[in-house]
Design goal:
Length: 693
Amino acid sequence: MQIQELNKEQQKAVNHIDGPMLVLAGAGSGKTKVLTNRIVNLIENGISPYNILAITFTNKAAKEMKDRVVRLIGKEAYNIQISTFHSLGLKILKENYSMLGYEKNFTIIDSDDVLTIIKKILKDKNMSKDRYNPREIKNKISSAKNEMMSIDSFAKVEFDHKVVEVYKEYQQKLKNGNSVDFDDLLILPIKLFRNYPRVLEEYQDRYKYILIDEYQDTNEAQYTFSKLLSAKYRNIFVVGDNDQAIYAFRGANYKNILNFEKDYPEAKTILLEENYRSTKTILNAANSVIKNNHERKDKNLWSNNATGNKIKYKEVANEKEEASFVGTEIKRLLSEGINEEDIAVLYRTNAQSRVIEEEMLKKNIKYRVVGSFYFYNRKEIKDLLCYLRLINNHKDDVSLLRVINTPRRGIGDKTIETLTEEATTRELSLYETISKGKELEFKNLIEDLTKASESLSLTELIDEILEKTGIKKELSTSKLLEDEIRLENLNEFKGVTKSYEEEYGTASLGDFLDEISLVSDMSEHQDSSNRVSLMTVHSVKGLEFDYVFIVGMEEGIFPHYNAINDGSNSAIEEERRLCYVAITRAKKELYITSADTRMLFGNPMRNQPSRFIDEIDKEYIDKERPKKLEKIITKVRKTVDKNATYEVGEHISHTEFGEGIVISVDKSIITVAFPHPIGIRKLMKGHPNITKL
DNA sequence: GAGACCGTCTTTTTT
DNA sequence: AGACGGTCTC
Ligand SMILES: Nc1ncnc2c1ncn2[C@@H]1O[C@H](COP(=O)(O)OP(=O)(O)OP(=O)(O)O)[C@@H](O)[C@H]1O
């Protein structure tokens, strides 16, 4: 195949057919483009679409890639398996559930449910929430699963045997409820492959050609998954960039990509060095930031594009002004005829989206929040989903508990406690245990709805649920504005199911629920055209926009406190890679903002501009900050004593807040208690305003 | 068993 | 500032 728009190295990668290959290259060098075109080339070389497996990092990326391949070769492309690891895992699970001891229609539980289950276990085991943080335990369990630890090997690294107990109990609960969590979608197929080599071979024969995008962010389980699948034919083609590894917190290990040549000694490697995406200015700025990372191989990445405008950096007083600045600039761009879909606003944490959203509404700018679970996390939507899940899988105790008394049916803690006890002793699900009373009425209701589900379309079923459960009646007779909004949301949800049905013909309940679990991102079910995109830096990986705003470029936000306080160099380096990803998303123009004060948990928080701003070479950035501020800031910067040390309990005095006591000391921040009404403040160590007493 | 009230905790990032 | 869980009263 000869494609006009490919350079020599890219062409080489595209034309490669058999054997392992690694494409290691920087941002915007065309890795994804190469991967997509290689799929096309494989097909043109007579390889069946059924034998091709392409793995992307997000569902969104999978969809985009599929669309692109369809455009290039037509409908045949629908037969290629293009998906995330998790979706593929689910597919394999659905084809083999009984071998793993599950039943048809198993439920995929979301992270909220995981937390609910863990909290419940902690309570049952009388483990106090102060000593055992449910969130932390959830992370521990998830990491253990992603490193494919058995309970025994987990017990070797986790010395608190009670935590091990929780892990055990958690697994048991899932199994009893015929449910799996996200991590299971990866590790159950691996278990299947290991226990049944014949099954593995079937899949190896099916997926003879494997392509993986964003390989630098694979974790242990994903790594093993791909290694097993590719072992027979060794036709594995991976692309990635170690400078864009940003998922270490999820167990991803960028060494997987650097070790590729060790794993597959016969592998060919291709490096791409030309960036086709960004202006010279933007690319050079990104390069000047990333070169501050020391745990990295330097690579050459250049652009032949125009020089372009300098990056605009604006320092403002607070997050409201920041949003307002972004809003005004976007308005200006739009008035110049630029399309909404070519603009993105990026932030480090989801919490930052709120102010921006409000501003978009205020200025009447059309936007969408990518990666927002907000809609599916609303109470009324979750309730409805739990009804659907319960109808789909009667053993789903988590869902049952959520809806058995919603709306109120007079089934309280007492009843539930008795039921739970009986269910545990008889080793049955709660649903199976129900045999009398108001609970039975509820069970009969679910039975009826289950029957109805067999002959109704998804949307009709939802209507039936809302009607028969009394949800609709309760909400429509209520006078509360809140309830009116709830009803509206439920209607919007019906819009989602309707468009889902239209897209896939008639849709099965199970398939729909799976889809929701895997992509509970409202923006993916919405039309994205003519909207400004708002998203975290993590979710923008792999995408590109003409105009990009990076907001909240402050110490404490980006890099985040937790990374700073972690004290490890690698945590900061990951933040820096994240910054590199953010900058390299921009094609034409980049804006960076920082706020001096930002509300955090209802308290104003002072932040310095991010170190990453200083790391951008002066020639690529135009800094704008209030004149007065400039003097104060440079003065403060010069006089901060980085080596100041404090001890908990020490008395200090602050020029503004008066005397206080140090209550905790972190890497660069101390927390100080001041007398009423000032209260608890976080201060920068060695700040000139602080005097030791 | 339902609803009101108060104190605590939250936010790092995602499939 | 807002969500959530625990406790108290009817
Ligand atoms: N040879 C080429 N000629 C012109 N444009 C190209 C060429 N190769 C890639 N591009 C364009 O460059 C942009 C970046 O490509 P792509 O998204 O594939 O890069 P990438 O390496 O996957 O980037 P990242 O790692 O940052 O996600 C795309 O708009 C693509 O169309």
